Amino acid sequence: MTDTSSTCSTTGSVPSAAQVHADATAALLELISRLSLTAESAELIIAATLTQRDLNTDTTEALSTPTLTTVSSLTEDDAPSAVQPSEPIISPIIEVPDTAAVPVAQVAAVAVQEAPAAQLPPLPITPAPVAIVAPVPAVAPVAQVAVVAVQAVPPPPIGHVLTTYGDFDYYVPDAYCLAPYYLVTKGRRVGVFSQWQKCSPYVTGVAGAVYSKARSVTHGRDIMEEAIDSGEAQVLP
Question: Comparing 61 with 128, which gets the higher pLDDT?
Fold first, then answer.
């Protein structure tokens, strides 16, 4: 085998750890903008990612730089088995699923539906006012006074004159009156009267009236004076 004394250097085009973190941060920001998250949620995700990055910084920097091996005095048989530079190990980036953005209005509606209904205090029950009716004093009944209709005394008959016997006055017809004659000893007016229409107003409908027919004026006067003497003659109200 032939020894080779030349020194071989292998350089790779692997990005640096800072570039990897910068690209990861940019991809994370783009993903958060697509999810339409609130500012508070976006800050929480970024803070968690940066914390994880800081914890893995030492490991990432150690693994991200390719190992360069200088091989000297290698034989042709050993050349194919030369040590190859190892690939950098980059800490994996947490992939957030590209889900559809939830509208803020829908989230607010769900929050409103889940919020318990406010319990309002019961309204006080006000009793209905009770109308107080004052008792009506009883009215004493008015004494009913019997009203007796006082009938007016019929006027004296025409063609008759008033005569006196003792202290009692009675009527007798004049010389021009014609028969029949009627004697009234108890009535609204008393005496001897000519014609029934002149005698009727003093006895018709009068309680206690006493009257009779006389044969003549003289006959009627005699009976009238006897009634006066006996106290049976009376003028009724």
Answer: 128
